[in-house]
UniProtKB/TrEMBL annotation:
Keywords: ATP-binding, Isoprene biosynthesis, Kinase, Nucleotide-binding, Transferase. GO terms for molecular function: 4-(cytidine 5'-diphospho)-2-C-methyl-D-erythritol kinase activity; ATP binding. The active site is at K9, D133. The keyword Nucleotide-binding applies. Pathway: Isoprenoid biosynthesis; isopentenyl diphosphate biosynthesis via DXP pathway; isopentenyl diphosphate from 1-deoxy-D-xylulose 5-phosphate: step 3/6. Its EC number is 2.7.1.148. This is 4-diphosphocytidyl-2-C-methyl-D-erythritol kinase. The gene is ispE. The lineage of its organism: Bacteria, Pseudomonadati, Bacteroidota, Cytophagia, Cytophagales. Residues 210-252 form the GHMP kinase C-terminal domain. Gene3D superfamilies: 3.30.230.10, GHMP kinase, C-terminal domain. It comes from Thermonema lapsum. ATP binds at P91, M92, G93, A94, G95, L96, G97, G98, G99, S100, S101.
Amino acid sequence: MAIAFPKAKINIGLYITEKRTDGYHNLCSCFYPIPFYDVLEILPAPNYSLHISGLNVPGAPEDNLCTKAFRLMQQKHGIDEVAIYLHKHIPMGAGLGGGSSDAAATLKLLNELFDLKLPTAILKEYAAALGSDCAFFIEEQAAICTGRGEICHPLPLSLYGYHLVVVYPELHISTANAYRHIQPAPVGYDLERFLCTHEPEAWGTVVVNRFEDYVLELYPDLALLKKQLYEAGACYASMSGSGSAFYGIFKKPLTDYQWSYPTWQFAIQND
Ligand SMILES: C[C@](O)(CO)[C@H](O)COP(=O)(O)OP(=O)(O)OC[C@H]1O[C@@H](n2ccc(N)nc2=O)[C@H](O)[C@@H]1O
Ligand SMILES: Nc1ncnc2c1ncn2[C@@H]1O[C@H](COP(=O)(O)OP(=O)(O)OP(=O)(O)O)[C@@H](O)[C@H]1O
């Protein structure tokens, strides 16, 4: 039996710097893992099956990223069939990377279950083939990610002691559409250095998510959400990924605040 708790991520700053010839875009972003989890269990079984509980995941089982991760491992290493149990908790189309995290966790669990002893570098290579965000979730540590998002350099950034509020406005944003509407532009400053030398209170006017303008144009009411996070005392607030979730970083836990959308609060306790 193998069990894992795939984490979500937030993007702290997200810059789309170039359109590539392969249809993807180069980006530069700090990916930060957050204690918001799905649950994944994999058991040996006579036939492949995927069982999902919790949130409803759109798409056929064969299109699920857990299945794609399993098929990849089967093709590369001839592993036996398994039953995968996924309890879905991280909202989808939120920019929190839940599907990518499930895929990375599937690769890691299969590596363990079948004692394949694949090194991290190989797992990252497989993960990158499943999705641009997936490689980050192999190690789940704060990183500056570049390329398609699959080149991850660990970043000594810790939000230890802060409280994170994630608000999900229940709008599913298509990542591919969001990329199509972006005009690539250089970052213009050293994101890594800036984040490591400034407290979150100083990030507001400098560290931006370049998808925000596009999403706010589609859904102008979301501007209010960001404003509310600041009014509630956030040191820094932003959209994550291509949306639609927004997050706020707080010094103290938030109490007595009413949000019009599903909201989660996390104490950041370790890196
Ligand atoms: C917006 C972010 O969440 C930021 O962390 C990610 O870049 C999204 O990464 P992801 O969901 O793993 O994306 P993928 O599943 O690889 O790609 C979905 C679609 O988004 C577009 N895409 C994605 C990543 C990237 N660097 N450039 C792109 O243009 C492509 O049209 C692609 O077909
Ligand atoms: N295991 C999975 N969990 C969630 N979504 C999955 C999974 N496998 C495939 N998908 C598909 O991926 C879509 C995006 O889900 P995901 O949780 O990755 O959202 P996201 O974080 O907004 O994506 P992105 O990483 O593009 O920002 C879902 O709508 C679903 O159709």
